[in-house]
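Hi there,

I know you've been waiting on this one. I reran it after we fixed the sequence typo, so this is the corrected version. Both the input and the resulting structure follow.
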Amino acid sequence: MDFTSLMRPRKLCLCKGVSRQDIADAVRGGAETFRQLIDKTHATTGCGTCYHEVYAAFREEREKLVAERTGQLGLKFEQP
């Protein structure tokens, strides 16, 4: 069996099989809070080791959506 095929697209949450695209779809589908994302996808509800990566992906997808809706660019400021 080719295990790499199981990871296409790459899963952020292995326990629940949630990919980055699943997170983007949930955000576009109305998940405005991290709790709503968890309710929609069940990400982070297994072992929990993916929590930080899933949360970061959620924030990035929310920022993209807000930037699209407001017509503003998402600006990133680097720390000196």
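Quick highlight: The beta strands are 11-13, 18-19.

Best,
R. S.
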